[in-house]
């Protein structure tokens, strides 16, 4: 019940464009330590960051010299105040620019940070912000979940490197999945425990987990997305289970076997396999090939056949559980079974 309530609130956030979930400094530090070699001599742009509470700006400004950055730029949507230490609202959007420590106290002092009013509203899609984007080498931020498709499309269009926060459900988006399949985007190291705590202004945290935090919302399935190479994506997933037809049934409407858990991918099966979406966290392009995604409303055709006539009577029942024509399904113990989203893969090393 608690999870359903939380999902409802997140859906409301997406619908109402209130998905202002600010990332914790500890989460940023934990992830970005794996990318240090990429930052030397680079211009970093955080284009969805409230300067009053942006932990991305904090991380990069305090680690400017350690990372060897060339420049740090931050922009945000309007209604932010030019006073860095104020929470009063202003109708003007601003840009922060930091070029490093000048007085050698290893602290980004206020007088070392350039604060500029923008002419527009600071929307990342505005011509003004796109002009700034073109100057950047790497974009690092937590964009609005409701605009994730559009946000990533812009980064790809301008050929930018990036490390951004998003929900794992984005993997299924028709605008995002082809980028993953074609190795133009992949998952980073991830959040501790597979969930993130965000500072939020709008919603009560309905999570029942013991690690809930006051003034924050706990969101499961949140991940880092990047196109910067990291060691993790070249580590083989250790496979230990042998294929048996009984344990790995085939789909009725697609020539692939079903695998319920990523860790149980059989080491000796050469054909196509449907694996959970969580597989993407272990994906190594040297070990596996991604064929497609087995979900009808993703708009990505992989040749899934419709229900067989003798199984159509089950359609209404499975539709109640959120399935639609075009989803993968199996017959297990004489009953129609519709698994959750499946990524279709093949083992390249067999």
Fold and architecture overview:
This is Adenine-specific methyltransferase EcoRI family protein. It comes from Kangiella aquimarina. Keywords: Methyltransferase, Transferase. InterPro entries: DNA_methylase_N6_adenine_CS, EcoRI-like_methylase. GO terms for molecular function: methyltransferase activity. The protein has two domains: 9-233; 257-347, no CATH class. The model is unreliable at 5-19, 80-88 and 202-210 (pLDDT under 50). It has an eight-stranded mixed beta sheet with strand order 5-4-3-2-6-7-11-8, with helices on both faces. Strands 12-13-17-14 form a four-stranded mixed beta sheet. Strands 1-9-10 form a three-stranded antiparallel beta sheet. It is elongated. It is α+β, with helices and mostly antiparallel strands. The chain is 19% helix and 21% strand. It contains nine helices and 17 strands.
Strand and helix layout:
Blueprint: H1 2-16, E1 21-23, H2 25-32, H3 36-39, E2 43-46, H4 55-62, H5 64-67, E3 71-75, E4 94-98, E5 113-117, H6 127-133, E6 138-141, H7 148-157, E7 161-167, H8 177-181, E8 186-187, E9 195-200, E10 216-220, E11 222-226, E12 257-258, E13 273-276, E14 288-293, H9 315-319, E15 330-332, E16 335-337, E17 342-347
Parallel strand pairs: 2-3, 2-6, 6-7, 12-13
Antiparallel strand pairs: 1-9, 3-4, 4-5, 7-11, 8-11, 9-10, 13-17, 14-17, 15-16
What are its keywords?
eight-stranded mixed beta sheet; four-stranded mixed beta sheet; alpha+beta; 19% helix; 21% strand; 9 helices; single chain
């Amino acid at each position: 019940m608690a999870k359903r309530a939380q999902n409802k609130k997140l859906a409301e956030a997406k619908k109402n464009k209130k998905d202002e979930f600010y990332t914790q400094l500890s989460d940023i530090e934990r992830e970005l330590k794996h990318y240090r070699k990429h930052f030397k001599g680079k211009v970093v742009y955080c284009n969805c960051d409230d300067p009053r509470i942006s932990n991305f700006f904090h991380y990069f400004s305090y680690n400017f010299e350690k990372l060897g950055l060339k420049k740090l730029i931050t922009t945000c949507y309007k209604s932010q105040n030019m006073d860095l230490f104020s929470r009063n609202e202003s109708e003007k959007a601003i840009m922060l620019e930091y070029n490093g420590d000048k007085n050698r106290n290893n602290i980004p002092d206020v007088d070392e940070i350039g604060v500029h009013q923008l002419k527009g509203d600071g929307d990342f899609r505005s011509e003004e912000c796109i002009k700034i984007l073109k100057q950047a080498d790497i974009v690092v931020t937590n964009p609005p979940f409701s605009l994730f498709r559009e946000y990533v499309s812009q980064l790809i269009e301008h050929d930018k490197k990036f490390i951004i926060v998003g929900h794992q459900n984005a993997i299924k988006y028709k605008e995002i999945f082809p980028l993953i399949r074609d190795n133009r985007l992949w998952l980073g190291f991830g959040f501790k425990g597979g969930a993130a705590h965000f500072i939020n202004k709008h919603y009560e945290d309905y999570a029942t987990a013991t690690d809930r935090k006051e003034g924050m919302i706990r969101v499961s399935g949140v991940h880092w997305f990047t196109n910067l190479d990291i060691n993790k994506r070249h580590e083989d997933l250790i496979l230990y289970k042998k294929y048996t037809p009984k344990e790995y049934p085939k789909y009725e409407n697609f020539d692939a076997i079903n695998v319920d858990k990523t860790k149980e991918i059989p080491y000796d099966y050469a054909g196509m396999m449907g694996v959970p979406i969580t597989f993407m966290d272990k994906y190594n392009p040297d070990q596996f090939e991604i064929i497609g995604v087995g979900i009808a409303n993703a708009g990505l055709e992989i040749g899934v056949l419709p229900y067989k006539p003798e199984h159509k009577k089950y359609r209404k029942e499975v539709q109640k559980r959120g399935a639609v024509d075009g989803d993968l399904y199996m017959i297990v113990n004489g009953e129609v079974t519709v698994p959750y989203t499946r990524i279709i893969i093949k083992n390249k090393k067999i």
